[in-house]
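Key idea: predict the complex, not the pieces.
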Amino acid sequence: MKLVTRSQLGWPTSAAPSQSTARGVKVHYEGTAVSTKLLANHDACLNEWKSIRRSHLANTAENYSDVAYNFAACPHGYLLEGRGLRRRTGANGNAALNQAHYAVLGLVGSSGLTEPTDAMLGAIRDGIELLRKNGAGNEIRGHRDGYATACPGGPLYAWVKKGAPRPTSPTPSKPAPPAPTPAPAVPVEDPMPAPTTLHESVAGGPDLPAGEWTELPAAEDTAILRGPCTYDVAFTVALSGTGDASRVQFRFVHVDIATRRRSAALPVDVYVRGGDTGTQVSRRGSLPAGQYLKVEALAEGAGAAVIHRTVDGLVWR
Ligand SMILES: [Zn+2]
Ligand SMILES: [Zn+2]
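Result:
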């Protein structure tokens, strides 16, 4: 699951009313024209989601306290947090309908971008499963079920009627171990250089105080990799004491060695786990000269401790 949290969106805690359970989840679409530019630019997805929240907050007729949906899903498979878990939606049409189901929005509309990508369907499914683990029953419906609206549009409604199955091809819900395939950033006309194998396994690690991004050193050197190179790496971490309700997030960061400037646009993998646990995050990418790659983790709740970490991967230089 690729979750973008409210804090990553720069939003405060939702002021929407709490609601611990519901019968299930209703799927929505935007119902307006949605630009196909979203397909090529994930920043446009984030801007779209922020502008939906702004328009809801400006809607004095509905008197919304927050964006109306619990989550949204973008064409690149990101699940974007809205009201989030255990909050009443404002999207389903009236108070009774809002109490009966939580709401997940697909970023497609009635013209322009109308067909959900497989990655988007996977992210909606991620949202449904996350809500099910947090009080939602098993029903999956469209907005139009029980309310006079075209929402969620033909393609999404057809998928809902099939039971909202997770697409079988792309968007794996868990990062796969690195595959020995050429990374896309290497030009095809160049002869493919042989990759170097990367393997470092280190016992121990830093404590992760709650609410602070903490760097996870791979070995003596804090940087996993230095550019220029193309990489496909997996970072496996054993964690202790994450507790039942803790969430630990990981992010890969490119840092410019000279300016210390950090790239902000890298994806974040988020895992919700309880107890002593292991997790793996992976990433493929290209590192320009003068930059290095590092991994950071953030624990919520009571914090956590790293008891072991391993870096595996392939590097093309
Ligand atoms: Zn709707
Ligand atoms: Zn996107």
